[in-house]
Amino acid sequence: MTRIERAFAILLLLSDGSTVTATELARRFEVSVRTIYRDVEMLSETGVPVYAERGSQGGYRLLEGYFLPPVTFTRAETVAMLLSLALARGLKVPPFAAELESAERKLVAALPQRLKPLLAETRRLIGFERPAIDAFHPEWPGAADGTPAADAAEARAVEIFLKAVLDGTRVRFVYRTPHAHGDRETEAQPQGLLWDRDRWYLIGIKLDSRNRPPAEAQRFWRADRVVEIEPSTFRSPPLPFDVRDHVGGLWLARAMARWNGPDAVRIRMPQAKAERLRKDWYFRFADYQPDGEGHVIMSYGEGDPALAFELVRWLGPEAELLSPKPWRDQLRAELTAMVAKLSA
């Protein structure tokens, strides 16, 4: 038996989840224990997750789930799997990009010969367009968006966060926001991830200085704003969580409700324009109240007056910025300057 044959036989022997000592393996294959050590080392170097457990009940074992039972796919199921892989690859920031490629290679290698041409067919016939830029919500100045380095950093943040979710461990990271001065160091207990409009959002419990979850501790962090991140060895007891409680825009609806405070932007507009904004991915979560005179007053949180002014100009002459009051003077000055240029 060659070394490769013996290593493969060891792999099959461990595939049932049992733990086998080096002595037992040496006796079974009629080689020395030192030879078994070298065989297991070769398996580990090729990426096979063989672990050694110490103690009287110890030995070598294979990571649970490394081998999957044989599966067969219909033509439609194969297309569905390849489309899923293509969609994941088409994301702006695909986490585990290398594993995505190797998974596709393994899938194609396991397919019957008659189904292998489907890979080329799906790549040639079906494409996925990425979401377009939102003109009303541009990136904040200084954001490193779209560069290879920024995408790689975001992918790393998503990968580390997701691994922490699966392992039940905490993470530490430095987070940067456009509305805060300086970066914030945060320790969190990850719960899940959400992908929305080509952005990854990390969901977790923010821990206080004593590593305890304060009131309303659940937070959303944009992965592209994570400056540094590292996993922690600390484990936390799992908390009830279901990402389906946040999809359908519910996460944004809750955030908009928090932002809609005393200093919120309030705009009076015609009913027809309000109905159009109710269909927008962002503005549909604003608060809309009839004013009793056939118009609607929309309220939402906004810290940048320029963005609010753009919306008012888009709404047209029937719209009126009601608050914040200091912004009214700024908008009046801008509109006066525009009229002066048109009159020149």
Automatic annotation (TrEMBL):
A Pfam family annotated for this UniProt entry: HTH_11
Occurrences of domain HTH deoR-type (ranges): 3-58
Keyword Transcription regulation: yes
Entry keyword set: Transcription, Transcription regulation
Top-rank taxon: Bacteria
TM stretches of this protein: none
GO molecular function, a single term: DNA-binding transcription factor activity
InterPro entries reported for this sequence: CBASS_pafABC_assoc_protein, DeoR_HTH, HTH_11, WH-like_DNA-bd_sf, WH_DNA-bd_sf, WYL_dom
Claim: Transcription is one of the keywords in the record: yes
Designated name of the protein: Transcriptional regulator
Organism (species): Aliidongia dinghuensis
